[in-house]
Amino acid sequence: MEGGGKLAYSGGGLRHETKLLRSFSSVEPRRFGLGLIVGLLVVACAYFSTAKFDAVNIAMSKHQTSSSAVGISSPVNADDSSKQPLDLGVQDEGALPKEEIKAEKDDGSGISDSGVLDASAAPLNPATQGGKDEVPEKDDDPSAVAVLPPLSSDSADTTQESGVLEDQELQVQNAVAEAANPPESSNAIQAPADRIPEVETPPPPTPEIQAAPVQLTPPSPEVRQADLEAPPLPDWKPLCDVTSNHRIDWCELDGDVRVLGTNSTVTLVAPPGADARTFREESWRIKPYPRKADPNAMRNVREVTVRSVSGAAATPACTVRHDVPALVFSDRGYTGNYFHAYTDVVLPLFLTARQYSGEVLLLVADFQMWWLGKFLPVFKSLSNYEMVDLDADPRVHCFRRVQVGLTSHDDFSIDPTRSPTGESMLDFAAFLRAAYGLPRDVAWPASAGAANATAGKKTRPRLLVIARGRNRRFVNVEEIARGARKVGFDVSVSEGGHEVAPFAELANSCDAVVGVHGAGLTNMVFLPRGAVVIQVVPLGPMEFVASYFRGPSRDMGLRYLEYRIAPEESTLLDKYPREHPVIADPGSVKAKDWVSFMGVYLFEQDVRLDMKRFRPVLKKALSRLRAKPKNN
């Protein structure tokens, strides 16, 4: 028997021993001695039989271990490649008996003739070796069979042989461990050709996972630390501009601005972190009225001190804080004159405040309630807040932005290229019509009602004759009205009064206006777009004063006509002979001084129109109304 002889013989010995014990009492002493000798022989035979079988088994085990070591196919580190192959002391097949070799080949262990493990053979299992009556080895370590020491015919020293076998056993274990856990090294080499090739198992197919739809949202803007920091302060520029505008000095203050009306001061306090580049201490004296070149006009205008200081301690604390900007202006000067009221305050205020859409506070120096009341609809349309009487208010008003002085381009004129938001005189006229609630935006015949046209009722354009009460009057106003009616106008004659609203309504109801040069023609701002303005220019060098209405009327979308009177149409011919310089040489009178010029040609002169000479102008006005209006 192979593979379990030791246990089998041991079992047989126990059975013989049992029989001997049972018959021990009946055996005779002579036979006992003989049996003892026979038993010793049997034991000796059993010993030698067992020793010989174990030798064969040991050889087979050693051969299997050597074959397993040779068949390792795992990569070997380059550091171990220079070492000699392990010599486990395997005997040649020739050293074994042929029967043992045949048994080795037929034991079904999967070892080929060349000693290389067949990869297709089933793995070795000690429990399945041999026949069905064989008992498996009861070794604690399953790999013990593979590391049994070989039999050496050259060495008789068992102690030395045991030490060599232990070293070889450690080397085999290291080789097996390296085969099981190959080192991860870029220096790995291919296994020898006689080793079992590695079978690369393809990775299992990865199931395709459909990505969930991603909502495309705009990325959040990156907030940089620089964005969180306060913007750098701009370079300092002077508070006031007293050179660029020939009509008015004005100042702009941004930051911590404090206004104390009782002492007429507007103060800018330096911001934190200000230095010589971003802040300077200054002081200016400004009269916020647009006639700075006219001493007579500026004489009664209150002066305002505009300054900048480094510390808040130099200024009084705020009493009232405002979230809207402020405009500081004066309503004195020539505002008693109807024309100057518009050209010096109303129009500049529109030009300056319109950009704020009502969110601005008006601070009025030289407060005149009688005058402000005349134009109250204008102020309410430009500001959502009550006006402040700067002279009488003891509070300290604090703002983030203040402008001292109004923006002004020219007399009764706007330059759209210089206006803050591109306003023009056309916008100014539309604003006034809206402020006073006037219904007509376009003149006759476009304004004629559809009902009148359907009924066949004829409509006539309406002419307003401005009759002055003191100077530059129409002496023959009734004759003028009759002549206009004959031409085809409906006529209204009016001088106007203190209240603006009633005269504004009258002017808006007309399609044409005629008047001698003067403040009364200012009411043309209420005319509907496309109306006709006829300016009668009195005797004298009046070209420059006539321009006050010539250009603005066209800028407001009106049709302008001009009529210059002859000397016979002036009442000056009743006072001065025809040879007098006032009649014969008006330029010499103007050359003397402005007072002489005004005294003669503006205050002493009235007009008596020659209707034969003036009638063609009325007809031309009517034809202008019937013509298609131009896009102004």
TrEMBL record:
Subcellular location: Golgi apparatus membrane
GO cellular component, one term: Golgi membrane
Pathway(s) this gene product operates in, as recorded in its UniProt entry: Glycan metabolism
Main localisation: Golgi
Topology of this chain in the membrane: Single-pass type II membrane protein
Pfam families: Glyco_transf_61
Stretches of the chain forming a coiled coil according to its record: none
Keywords: Glycoprotein, Glycosyltransferase, Membrane, Transferase, Transmembrane, Transmembrane helix
Composition bias, Basic and acidic residues: 95-108
Region (Disordered): 67-162
Glycosyltransferase 61 catalytic domain span: 431-534
Keyword rRNA processing: no
GO molecular function annotations of the record: pentosyltransferase activity
TM region positions: 32-50
Protein name: Glycosyltransferase 61 catalytic domain-containing protein
